[in-house]
Amino acid sequence: MRTHLGSLRLAQLVQELSRLPGIGQKSATRIALHLLEGDAEAARALSEAILEMKAHVHPCRRCGAIAEEDECELCRDPRRDPHSLCVVGQPTDIFSMERAAVFRGRYHVLGGLLSPLEGVDPSDLRLAELELRVRAEAVREVVLALAGTVEGEATALFVARMLTGHPVSVTRLATGIPVGGDLEYVDEVTLERAFAGRRPLG
Amino acid sequence: MRTHLGSLRLAQLVQELSRLPGIGQKSATRIALHLLEGDAEAARALSEAILEMKAHVHPCRRCGAIAEEDECELCRDPRRDPHSLCVVGQPTDIFSMERAAVFRGRYHVLGGLLSPLEGVDPSDLRLAELELRVRAEAVREVVLALAGTVEGEATALFVARMLTGHPVSVTRLATGIPVGGDLEYVDEVTLERAFAGRRPLG
């Protein structure tokens, strides 16, 4: 943007803000002006929150989720079943699962999904760590909560094959029509899977 | 949001970000995770840009626009005509005027528009400063570039009345149909004004 902002420092802040996801030049300018007009305390709080987060938040040593200690809250929670593991692609997937509140075990974050096209191969993911945990933590159940994409599919198959020979049940989230979803808006592949996975009533 | 983020500091950053204009909880979370996953240098640059801007950017002592020095770039620019003043509501209005590149004088920022409903009265605006400047800087022309709203209207009338008796021409931006605008989408009041302000061709 060639807009005259009257201040190099304001322009610099606009530039930094516009690097954030979902923030264009216009939003960045609006946010920068909001910070300019607001009190110094609010700006300082934001600036500090960024540094604090960056300094103290890192992946959980055990599961790869977001943590402030060596291990994340969920890994340290004695009420969570250590013998049941839910495998997800990203730490954020844990948020979705926890919101649904259906799983009472622990998590394992792969840190991505297999994608030959994007050059993500097994060595890029926390797969060896998963196999180690399955053995060391006497895991009896592995639930694969991976995306319903080609990459999610490939990753699920890879994990299932990797865990063959371990005394563990490997399941995957069901594919089907979303609750409240109109058939009209469901794609054919999903419908095909939903049909194949149809279940008796009552 | 009750989402399990696994980190108080991450939650704190999400909260600070969601206070920014146009940023909801979802965008705030996405931005926070982007900063978490990005390198430390990017996060530090943003954090610093906020503090730098806050420490060094303030209103121009003369015109009220955004400045890093005592006076803003435009007030210090000797190529700008000091005897022609464009009166705007907010510093950001200057950006719009400069983008259009039609005005070669200087600016005066009122810091708002008169609004009895929102409790903004003349003493809240930089009106006395404007009258002082008109006299001290031997201003010959005042162009009111105020919003086409009731508040803009009221403010324009107030300024015009205030400057009665000063040897200065006071004009206001024309009201009319926007360039490229279809008549279909122009409201009646604008059309009425555009008709009243019709001009001979050629």
Characterization of the model:
The structure is a homodimer of 202-residue chains. With 202 residues, the first copy, chain A, is an alpha/beta fold. Chain A has eight helices and six strands; from the N terminus they run H-H-H-E-E-H-E-H-E-H-E-H-E-H. Chain A has a four-stranded parallel beta sheet with strand order 4-3-5-6. Chain A has a two-stranded antiparallel ribbon with strand order 1-2. In chain A, helix 1 (8-17) packs across helix 2 (25-37). The termini of chain A are far apart. The mean pLDDT of chain A is 90. At the A-B interface, helix 1, helix 2, helix 3, strand 2 and helix 5 of A face helix 1, helix 2, helix 3, strand 2 and helix 5 of B.
Could you provide a short overview of the structure?
With 202 residues, chain A is α/β, with parallel strands linked by helices. Chain A is 43% helix and 12% strand. In chain A, the strands form two sheets. Chain A has a four-stranded parallel β-sheet. Chain A has a two-stranded antiparallel sheet with strand order 1-2.
SSE blueprint and pairings:
The structure is a homodimer of 202-residue chains.
Chain A: H1 8-17, H2 25-37, H3 40-56, E1 58-59, E2 66-67, H4 73-76, E3 81-88, H5 91-100, E4 105-109, H6 127-136, E5 141-144, H7 150-162, E6 169-172, H8 188-196
Parallel strand pairs in A: 3-4, 3-5, 5-6
Antiparallel strand pairs in A: 1-2
Provide keyphrases for this structure.
two-stranded antiparallel ribbon; homodimer; alpha/beta; 4-stranded parallel sheet; 8 helices; 12% strand; 202 residues; globular
